[in-house]
Amino acid sequence: MTKLTFPENFLWGGATAANQLEGGYNEGGKGLNLADVLPGGKIRLEVIAQTGFDFEIDKSKYVYPNHDGIDFYHRYKEDIALFAEMGFKAYRMSIAWSRIFPNGDELEPNEEGLAFYDKVFDELAKYGIEPVVTISHYETPLHLIKEYGGWRSRELVTFFERYATVLFKRYKDKVKYWLTFNEINGATHMPILGLGFSPENQETKLQDSFQGLHHQFVASSLAVKAGHEIIPDAQIGCMLIYAPVYAFDSNPENILHALKEEQVFNYLCGDVQVRGAYPTFAKRYFKENNINLKIEDGDLELLKQYPVDFISLSYYMSRTEKKVKTDEEKAQGNLIGGIKNPFLNASEWGWEIDPTGLRISLNNLYDRYQVPLFVVENGLGAYDKVEEDGSINDDYRIDYLREHIKAMGEAIEDGVELMGYTSWGCIDLVSASSGEMSKRYGYIYVDKHDDGSGTFDRSKKKSFYWYKDVIATNGANL
């Protein structure tokens, strides 16, 4: 194997989202957001996938782990010091929209919320850690969901542009790297998370989802415009779930089916945000699915004029497809599943493990777009056991990460321009898909459990020291 070399300025670090770790859900003037009404436990996706989810908090029926997260809101200094001890060059985080605009549609921002992130950025700067900030990460203000119908409403474009502009002006000297919408292409599978609405029925789901996506495309371009005007050297990226789609076998029907799935899921959003135009394959897809977008004058010109600077992505798994599948063949995944791949093992949550798929993904994306790439999510959700001496020997996590980092190194050797790697859940947090604490990703263990018990105390896992060495050697020592 080629000796892997990572660029000197490679941004090693970790990633989190405000709604999954901050807590303090009703402190500092923060308004309620989507995550605040999502129940915890394995029933989460089942509950929110139902049509007509009511976006209410019902503590008689459910627990709400996002309300506490891991109390980063009060413990950020301790956590950032641990990130610095690992040697992080970058920390991908999100800003909770409803901390800045509690309802989402106010004219003036909440100063207390802005001041909180000032303190976070100042703490990161103290250690020389570069913030990579997601502007919207499954945190739509609840008022915008209930009063406007989420991103189905064109009015959210105005509210988002105002919100993003406030962030750029306030943090122009503190943040250089920005991402507009988290995993934007996942919206058609689970619109409640990215678009902030519960489908009324399956017949209108795609129509409403793609109309909401169009509004987000416009909002993203307006953010790119404002960001470059306010922070001339800013780098503003999109963020995609990427899962390469394999055909189950060499049956041409299955190969064509896999191709079509890949086009719509992996490339439609990227084409609009990077190339600045809807792809040609979208015309037939929209026609066959009765999708009629309302596109206002000037929208297409805006998309063309203000594309993103780079692509960031989450990579957890590949996806295997065939045209006709049975229930027993279906696989689990990050919003998307496909069918079980007989050549791959899976995590305890059924997510298939495919490091080579990451190399394939990076090659596919770079070949198509020729813009820098940034892996901002990748990791293994697993049960961790605390030994009697307090140690946590998560060799399974080290093995997973090692193989994926090797795959990134190979992609760089292939010619891919890769900016950095921020593995997901660098400190244990609430799982977005299951609302569980027991599905742990971190290098840092947090004493918080699914039933809400725990001290919130932090401790270092074996992977903490391993990743520290990876960063110190710039990927040479895996």
Description:
This protein is α/β, with parallel strands linked by helices. The protein has one domain (11-472): Alpha-Beta Barrel (TIM Barrel). The chain has helices at residues 18-21, 44-49, 72-86, 97-100, 111-126, 142-148, 155-170, 191-194, 202-230, 252-275, 280-288, 299-305, 355-369, 395-413, 462-472; strands at residues 11-15, 90-94, 130-136, 177-181, 235-241, 245-247, 310-314, 319-321, 373-377, 418-424, 444-446, 458-460. The protein starts with 10 loop residues before the first strand and ends in a 6-residue tail after the last helix.
Blueprint of the fold:
Layout: E1 11-15, H1 18-21, H2 44-49, H3 72-86, E2 90-94, H4 97-100, H5 111-126, E3 130-136, H6 142-148, H7 155-170, E4 177-181, H8 191-194, H9 202-230, E5 235-241, E6 245-247, H10 252-275, H11 280-288, H12 299-305, E7 310-314, E8 319-321, H13 355-369, E9 373-377, H14 395-413, E10 418-424, E11 444-446, E12 458-460, H15 462-472
Helix pairs in contact: 3-5, 7-9, 9-12, 13-14
What is the CATH top level name? Alpha Beta
CATH superfamily: Glycosidases
Give the strand order of the largest sheet, numbering strands 1, 2, ... along the chain: 1-2-3-4-5-7-9-10
Alpha carbon gap, first and last residue: 14 Å
| CATH topology name | TIM Barrel
Supply the number of structural domains: 1
Jot down its keywords.
alpha/beta, TIM Barrel, glycosidase, 478 residues, GH_1_N_CS, two-stranded parallel ribbon, 8-stranded parallel β-barrel
